[in-house]
Amino acid sequence: MNKKGILQLQSISLYFGREPIIQGLNLTILPGEIVVLMGPSGCGKSTFLSALCGIVPDQFQFSGKVLLDQQDLTCLPLARRKIGMLFQDDLLFPHMSVKGNLAFALPQEINRRERHNQVIALLAEVGMEALAGRDPATLSGGQRARISLLRTLLAQPRVLLLDEPFSKLDQVTRSQFRQLVWSYTERYQLPTLLVTHDIADIPDHCSQVLQLPYMESTSC
Amino acid sequence: MSIPLISYRVTQLLCLLPVILGVVGTLLPSFGYFPVAGFHNLNIDYYNTLWQEPGFSSMVVVTLVSGCLATCIALLLTVTIFSVFYSTSSWKVWRSLLSPMLAFPHAAFALGMMFLVTPSGWYARFFAFFTSGLTSPPAWHTVHDTYGVTLGIILGLKELPFLILMTLSACNQVNVSQLLKVGQSLGYHPVYAWLKIIWPQLLPQMRLPIIAVIAYSFSVVDIAQILGPTTPPTLAVAIMQWFGSEQLEQRLLGSAGAICLLLLTGLLMLGWLVLERLLIGKDSRWLINGMRNRLSLGWQWLGHVTQWIVWGVWVTALLSIVLWAVSWRWRYPDILPSEYSLKVWFRYSEKLLTLLGTTWFLALGSAVIGLLLVLGLLEAKKAQQRYALSWLYLPLLIPQISFIFGFQWLLVSLNLDGTWVGVIWSHLIYVVPYICLALVGYFKHFDKRYLTVAILLSGRSQYSYWRIKIAMLLWPISFAVAVGVAVSVAQYLPTLFAGAGRVSTLTTEAVSLAQGADYRVTGVFALAQLVVPLVTYGCAFLIPYFIYRRFSMMRI
Predict the structure, then answer these.
(1) Span A42-84, pLDDT tens digits
(2) Which of A150, B116, B256, B266 sits CB 3.0–4.6 Å from B30 for a disulfide?
(3) Which residues of A touch B551 (CB under 8 A)?
(4) How is chain A split into domains, by residue range?
């Protein structure tokens, strides 16, 4: 499904006004590897992920290079970065059915029938094919989170950025959803950057945990 | 240059140029400088003539009375309705009535009210029916009264839905339900919680809409022509008559009058700012005098009476238009017509269809162009800063009559007077700010992450914008188009001046027919005028409803 990629962050700095959030971060995330970024609420974790996508709010200054398989993403527009992102909220499009949400992520060239088949096959894989025609608002939190993950994967990203995607789920669902996410990152060998403030979210196989404001990296 | 920036600049050009050049083009003639007509000497003769004009002081008094009354009534009603009915069962009714009330064109509303309050109107007929005393219309000065009181009251009633809409939008920026709970926990009756906690926070946000109501009430021409005094008329009507005169000197006099009206309106706006400071300033003792329950039942009672009066007036205004439009014989003091017919419709069918076509074309044209401009504008980075779009509302703050004459000369010099383009441009000056007002809050609160996700998923920015952001905002967008159509349909002076007599709409025709004696014909044109915005509002509701009926998050 995905081409394996290596995500490299070179000399990354992020400032809020004059206040440094990240200074001179150099980081390499290999295919299937997970790096965790931790920090208290409001310390700039989500802004950092947005900045990796090229969206830097006015009050912030971002510098450095984001490379994916040696290709510099920094100068590419958001649409061409091939980044998959999951947020705290599932952000399912409320005006589309589950199937519509998933089909939106499929490449333009795929014809209608093939789109339908691919979406149904993917839903069947997680035992949710019966939900294809449903209004997202009628799904449970766990179902919505899973659909959101499947939608992200259907777009065939080469990097996965996770912005506290587990924080709004209850304990049981959260644990199941974590396992699902880690299984997919491993299966598709996606370099993954997870932002969280909950230690329980850190997977056993994570390679690094960074603390914001960034001073030094700490191995797991 | 990006598309949003182009849109930003084009909108600035389209909305500000007519106002700025229009005011300059009115100011210079007022000082005797009007080269195209052979007036080259700067002087203040026309201001002197204006002071000496018979009835000038009465015109100013009538304008002040009707304008202040309209603003006060609209504001007091809005305060009462929110304070008494917010989040009660009546509130749902108010919210659902808001769109049809907004859709009611000013001229049609004035005609409906004329059918009600004239001495031979519906109210007098009801009075006669219940008292069995009035066999002929009484000699009451219920319309065209000397001080413009009726005009002020009716204008206030018409401005009410606009202020309610603007207050609703302002409520989004204040945590009303939490503040109400806090107020009630401190022992304040909800009415007092509104008056002492919420309104002081809302009023600064309502500054622009209130000033817009002042500007409109002082410069309104169509309603004043239908219901206002005639000898002398309001200043705005007199100015229009001077502008319409064949004697060029009279037009210069009109310019002087227009500048006076501008100054007068400016003074009243300043007056409001002072009053606002007195009402909600830090030193306002009444806010902290501890009063929390006194006369609260009286407020409630007053609120309910006001509510029923307002609903009654609006419903009877609509009914009277419908009845006159289908009546054939309706003698005084009969409560209902004795004979119904569609003969008047058939007699005027050709004219009606032509005017309906023109009105639709102008309204849809300006609403769609206005929407595209606003969509671009709202995406422009420049528009994201606070107060960045303040300039857009300038046309709403300046009396129409004070720049429309200058704007007409701009159109003449561009060879656009009397053309569709010219008329649509004149409508856009108002359509764009109203569409922007209707959309800005929704665009500001739209969760940008949806668009980020969509672009990341699809790899296409434009596609994601239309397929996700615009599709998710279809409700407010279609409502904004309906607002745009209603605003365009209501334009009287811009159509008259930019159309140069060659472009007529249902509004211009309905106002001119109001001077005639045949209420049946007036009723037909008023109803036809009403149909355009009502149908648009209906579509604005039904189209998104049918598209999104399956998706619960997309319901209103």
Answers:
(1) 888 889 999 999 888 888 999 999 999 888 998 899 988 989 9
(2) B256
(3) 94-97, 135-137
(4) 1-82+159-220, 94-155
